[in-house]
TrEMBL record:
Protein name (Swiss-Prot/TrEMBL): Iron transporter
Pfam entry (one): FTR1
Membrane topology of the entry: Multi-pass membrane protein
GO function term, MF aspect, one: ferrous iron transmembrane transporter activity
Transmembrane segments: 6-27, 34-58, 70-88, 108-125, 145-165, 177-197, 245-264
Predominant subcellular localization, coarse grouping: membrane
Keywords: Membrane, Transmembrane, Transmembrane helix
InterPro entries on file: FTR1/Fip1/EfeU
Family: Belongs to the oxidase-dependent Fe transporter (OFeT) (TC 9.A.10.1) family.
Protein location: Membrane
Any Gene Ontology CC annotation: high-affinity iron permease complex
Length: 276
């Protein structure tokens, strides 16, 4: 539930910021009559995202055996691609997002109200579909309501934070927020990739299911809370296969370094000049 809460919080805040930028632009430019079109596009995008998530869940419910494992593995791989693209895109575009959205909305206004609704739909649908696929991939293997509780709490927290930001009742350093949540999502994505490799092994697409890299079941009992936290957050299991471990390290380490590299390369502030 912790990993899914993080996904809901991160993706939900991105969606909330997009909607806040569009609403604020229309309000400040005295075009409040177009707000209903923005909200219409947002509503359709939300329904589409919920529908995709429900379709994915319902579709796998009718599968069993290798077919289900193969579908789960494909969903995991797609989710890893999405989350990797998303965190790097957000790091690059965070400072320009407001300007870009206002420019697109201004162009849509010149075309007509349906273009405004379409622009809002596309802006929100991209994030919503990413959330649906990430949720489906992260919730695999769960047999209770915890994933739904996690995504609901994450989205609800994002909506509250977005409203407070819009009302200027709270200030958050969004650059640091997206940097650290992005770093955590890299580790979550590494766990999803590991889960995908495990599914491919169970579907007999990849070998080595019983070839374990190590065995920590004695130090990490499956029922311990810390073992559950590691498994739920990063899909860490005490007895992974060699291919699962290689996949986790081969993705997690280089992607995390590349993501944090710009922050690590920031030059140190120059010392103040001394008086002669």
């Amino acid at each position: 539930m912790t990993a899914i809460y993080l996904i809901g919080l991160r993706e939900g805040l991105e969606i909330t910021l997009v909607v806040s930028i569009l609403v604020a632009f229309l309000v400040k430019s005295d075009r409040k009559h177009l707000l209903k079109w923005v909200w219409s596009g947002v509503a359709v995008a939300a329904l589409l995202s919920i529908g995709v998530a429900a379709l994915l869940q319902a579709g796998t419910a009718y599968l069993s055996g290798p077919h289900q494992e193969l579908v789960d593995a494909i969903a995991s791989l797609i989710a890893v691609v999405f989350v990797t693209f998303m965190i790097f895109w957000m790091r690059r575009m965070a400072r320009q997002m407001s300007k870009e959205l206002r420019g697109r909305l201004e162009d849509a206004i010149q075309v007509g109200p349906f273009a405004v609704a379409g622009m809002a739909f596309l802006a929100v649908a991209r994030e919503g579909l990413e959330t649906s696929i990430l949720f489906f991939a992260a919730a695999q293997g769960a047999d209770d309501w915890q994933p739904f509780v996690g995504i609901t709490l994450g989205l609800a927290t994002a909506v509250v934070l977005g409203f407070l930001l819009y009302a200027s009742a709270v200030r958050i350093n969004l650059t640091k927020f997206f940097t650290w949540t992005g770093a955590l999502l890299v580790l979550v994505a590494a766990g999803i990739l590991k889960y995908g490799v495990h599914d491919l092994q169970e579907a007999n697409v990849l070998p080595g299911l019983n070839n374990h890299a190590f065995d920590l079941t004695g130090a990490l009992p499956p029922t311990a809370w810390y073992a559950e936290l590691l498994r739920g957050m990063f899909n860490f299991t005490p007895q992974p296969s060699v291919l699962e471990t290689i996949a986790w390290i081969a993705y997690g380490v280089p992607v995390l370094v590349l993501f944090l590299l710009p922050m690590l390369r920031k030059p140190a502030p120059e010392p103040a000049p001394s008086n002669a």
